[in-house]
Structure formats: structure tokens, C-alpha cells
């Protein structure tokens, strides 16, 4: 079965893991998803530090400059000013490391959300941290998409499974206020899962506004 009439509403990348990301107009997807995504991470003695515990990391802006260098609130990630900002959010013993292997992703290289599920969620889509947002989707149709493919521009994306959500969803992306009820609500209404883990089946260029075809295998 093929579903048409869908579109690509948004593309985002997160150059520094657990920091706020940046919107893109287009991207050339590779086997590792959106180039420049999560290429730097915050570490402590116990391992990677994320906004699950250090929620103020979400108040810092991660971007990628024209040379492919990750920046934190405008500072190169390896600059003392960037480290000072990160330590204010994640502890005085935190440090930053480049992180370019596939293990940098929590599950798979892409997270795909849909406008229908975001509307049902009823909160800012940034809480879900998707790489791609698909528009024109009716309600919670994404719940049945696992195993299907999205054909966008030159790329093909395989949809694997629904994403289990974590405490990062409880943080307001603008005020950084935490509301535990958000995660409880996701559990009650969506079984604890929103958006889809995904991988790149065929690399290629995609752009906001591209038509999207959903190809569902025969059951």
C-alpha cells in the first residue's frame, strides 16, 4: 500500500547531544542520518551526560558553522567559553568530546514525528526532538507505520519502531521549567511512545516542502 498527499514539514539536527537543535531547509541524508547531528557530546566521569538529568543543557543552542564545526551559543565547541556554559548546566567536572560513530544515537540515526501525533500531544514539538516532521498525517496514524518506508526527495527512510519517551519531554524548551505530568500523560495516552525510530535505507537529498510517499509492506 502507498499513501500519498504527505509532505516534509521540518528538518532539524542537534550538533551537540542534549542541547537545543537547529532547523534546516534541506539536508543530504547519509547512513548516519542528518550530517552534523550529535557530533559532540557532554561527558562526566560516569559517561555521557544528557538533559535527562542535566535539563539545563536544553537551554544552550547547538549549531553547525560553515566549516562543519559544532558551536554552543555561538562559540566553537572546543573553546573555553563553550565549556564554561556547559559546566554551568552540567557540573564543574563536565567536559566535551567529539563523537562521530553510530553509537552516538540513542536508538537509530533518525527520529521521525508526524503533525497528527504532535497535535494530539498538544505541546511544543521541540519536546520530542525529531529530526523530521511529516505533515498531512491524520491523527495517530504513525502508530501503524513501523516497518514502512518514507520516500522523500532522493532518500528512502525505513521506519523501525515507536520511540519510548524520557524525562527530556518534561522540560519547556523556552523556560526550562519541568512538568513531570508531561511524561505521565505520554504514558497514559500514547503508551509511553511518540515518534518513530528510523534509519536511512537510501541516501539522498531532502528539503522542506518535499512530497512524501509512505510505502507500507503487505501484511
Give a verbal description of the structure.
The structure is a single chain. The chain has 219 residues and is mainly beta. It folds into two domains: 2-33 and 106-215, M1 Pyruvate Kinase, Domain 3 (Beta Barrel), CATH 2.40.33.20; 40-104, no CATH class. The chain has three helices and 16 strands. The chain has a seven-stranded mixed β-barrel with strand order 1-11-10-14-13-12-16. The longest helix is centred in the middle third of the chain and has 11 residues, at 80-90. The radius of gyration is 17 Å and the shape is globular.
Describe the secondary-structure layout.
Blueprint: E1 2-13, E2 22-24, E3 26-29, E4 40-44, E5 47-49, E6 62-64, E7 70-72, E8 75-76, H1 80-90, E9 95-98, E10 110-114, H2 115-121, E11 132-135, E12 149-152, E13 155-164, H3 181-190, E14 193-202, E15 204-207, E16 211-215
Parallel strand pairs: 10-11
Antiparallel strand pairs: 1-2, 1-11, 1-16, 3-15, 4-5, 4-9, 6-7, 7-8, 10-14, 12-13, 12-16, 13-14
pLDDT averaged residue by residue? 96
Cα(first) to Cα(last) distance is 10 Å
The CATH C-level class name of the largest domain:
Mainly Beta
> Nearest-angstrom radius of gyration?
17 Å
Protein structure class: mainly beta
* Spans of at least 5 consecutive residues with low confidence: none
Shape: globular
CATH architecture of the largest domain: Beta Barrel
Write the CATH homologous superfamily of the largest domain.
Answer: PK beta-barrel domain-like
Enter the CATH topology name of the largest domain. Answer: M1 Pyruvate Kinase, Domain 3
